[in-house]
Design a protein that fits this description.
Blueprint lengths: L4 H24 L20 H22 L6 H22 L6 H16 L5 H12 L13 H9 L3 H7 L3 H16 L4 H15 L3 H24 L6 H16 L5 H17 L10
Helix pairs in contact: 1-2, 1-4, 1-12, 2-3, 2-4, 3-4, 4-5, 4-12, 6-10, 8-9, 8-12, 9-10, 9-12, 10-11
């Protein structure tokens, strides 16, 4: 009798590898404004590139377990709670790998849902994967820790924004409708892959109500980041001389404000994961 177990195991391993690669690509991407990259720690004092890469590697087993749990499943409350339990184990692995620093808490949520959604059905189109992820995210997790326990949750409550949960429940619009189109448009213009990914990040930043920025610097930091990102894009993006100069100026401003667009970085990783589902392995050359 033919069994699907080895097939599902192989597919889960592949999806987990794509998720780790997307996190690694986001970490390596440089120069990113206010974020950890190959140049340094940006606005972070407890993170660096090596830590981000260790965290990404440590999360691969959790992503694989999420994919295996979701393979062929429907978006039910039971699945939502199972994925959340795996995610909390993944967070422990992340904290152990990072020495207690929050390297990827938001990415565990976003990529975990997308990995699970990709395992649920054979339709790998970004809109379909994100839609299934949203259907899972809309279910309640009865075992979740009390609300308000994270910086993102406190920023949501204080500023009245949707945060990571709202983004997921809406079907990741900043990845599907902003990040991927920006990535594709930059590639179509002939931009190098690094510049295309930077433009995707900037497009996300220009629109997202990033709770990491709100937590660190309030509305002034968020407004500065969104305005600066839009200016880089208006000047032609990261591939132009004027755009690159504006990008470096934005980086200096965010570092001076001790502000980091971590939510945008998580959604860039989600964008790169969805992109990899379209052409797995095709973008690895751009990581360094």
């Amino acid at each position: 009798m033919i069994t699907t177990a080895p097939i599902r195991s192989t597919a889960a391993a592949r999806l987990a590898a794509l998720a780790e690669a997307s996190l690694a690509d986001e970490a390596w991407l440089s120069p990113k404004p206010g974020l950890v990259d190959a140049r340094g720690s940006g606005a972070h004092h407890d993170l660096d590139l090596a830590t981000m890469l260790r965290s990404a590697r440590a999360l691969r087993p959790a992503f694989r377990a999420m994919a295996a749990a979701a393979a062929g499943a429907a978006p039910t409350q039971a699945l939502r709670e199972r994925l959340a339990a795996i995610g909390r184990l993944g967070e422990r692995a992340m904290l152990a790998a990072s020495g207690g620093a929050n390297a990827h808490r938001g990415a565990i949520w976003a990529l975990g849902l997308l990995v699970a959604a990709a395992a649920m059905d054979g339709d790998g189109r970004a809109e379909s994967v994100a839609g299934r992820a949203a259907a899972v995210a809309r279910h309640r997790d009865r075992f979740a820790p009390a609300p308000g326990g994270t910086n993102g949750a406190r920023a949501c409550a204080r500023y009245g924004v949707g945060g990571a949960r709202g983004e997921a429940r809406a079907g990741f619009p900043h990845a599907v409708a902003i990040g991927l189109p920006a990535l594709d448009a930059a590639r179509a213009r002939g931009a190098a892959e690094t510049d295309a990914r930077l433009d995707a990040l900037l497009a996300i930043m220009a629109s997202l109500e990033d709770t990491c920025l709100l937590h660190r610097g309030g509305r002034p930091a968020l407004d500065a980041a969104r305005r600066g990102a839009a200016e880089v894009l208006a000047l032609g993006g990261a591939s132009t001389r004027a755009g690159r100069a504006a990008l470096l100026a934005l980086d200096a401003e965010l570092v001076a404000r001790n502000a980091s667009p971590g939510g945008s970085a998580d959604l860039l990783a989600a964008t790169l994961f969805l992109d990899r589902l379209r052409a797995p392995g095709a973008r690895d050359h751009a990581r360094r």
